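Worked example

This section walks through a single chain of length 343. The input is the sequence exactly as stored; nothing has been trimmed or padded.
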Amino acid sequence: MNKDNKATILVVDDAPENIDVLTSLLREQYKVKAALNGKLALRIAAGRHKPDLILLDVMMPDMDGHEVCRQLKRNGETSGIPVIFVSAKSKTSDEQTGFALGAVDYITKPISPPLVLARVRTHLALYDQARHLEKLVQQRTAQLNETRAEIIRRLGRAAEFKDNETGMHVIRMSWFSRFLAEQIGKPEDWCELLYSAAPMHDIGKIGIPDRVLLKPGKLDAEEWAIMQRHVQYGVEIIGDHPSPLLQLAKEVAMYHHEKWDGSGYPNKIKGESIPLCARIVAIADVFDALTSERPYKRAWSEDDAIALLQNEAGKHFDPALIPLFIQCLPKIRAIQKQYHEEF
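Given that input, the structure is written out below as tokens.
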């Protein structure tokens, strides 16, 4: 085996002679690091190149092995590293304490070299297997999350096809929403969730009759009341689900027609009472609708669309978000070019 592929063992003992014994035994097959006290052991374990297994003495001054093990298991970055206690304390109660703290094995001193090698080999193999399984689970989870997000995006496009011949609107406005969330400084995972949830903002349009949804002229009062129902339809379609993605999608669907000054619908809430996700989507949705060409209208220029956003800041839109949206324009233009519509 290439030296660089050797597993790393951290030996922790306050007696140099004990470290020498274990190092001599292990160094032919493994890379060995050593620490003479608990604090140094914790620093090494949490470092960039983490050990694959720790051989830990119990009786040490300042910080004994039990406390070292406790702190290793409390730290998410080191909790998975297998710990084998190596101690002169040989009572059954000592072993019980070690296992209760999270150790995978307990070896008594004086050590038996064949036993140490066998136990180290076994627990390294188990740790490798656990890491491999964890990686497979992470990959599968990522695939499932992406599949779920793609289904949501396609459902959003399905709604757009009722009044938009290509469905590109939901793709563009989802990117615009993500760019604005990133510009605000929201965490990457939240930006990704918003990007995946935004396509569902108008999913409720599926429930609106074509005579209303596709009417070329201005809607009368009765028709406008019917159109507003798409918000509630969207909430009912998304439903109640513990998935953070679907929860955010529901929030977007419910609130993206509310306005900063309280004149929106369906609940006429205002200001920061409107969830941030909906305030972001409202800007992205309107900007793309204005700047997109349709069979029944010409696209507004970018300057005219931005002028409207600025004029509506503090009325329709969160005034703090409009300048940040404008800063996203270079990236927005690239998305408009990539996902343009042809009629």
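What to look for: Residues 80 and 222 are 62 Å apart (CA to CA).
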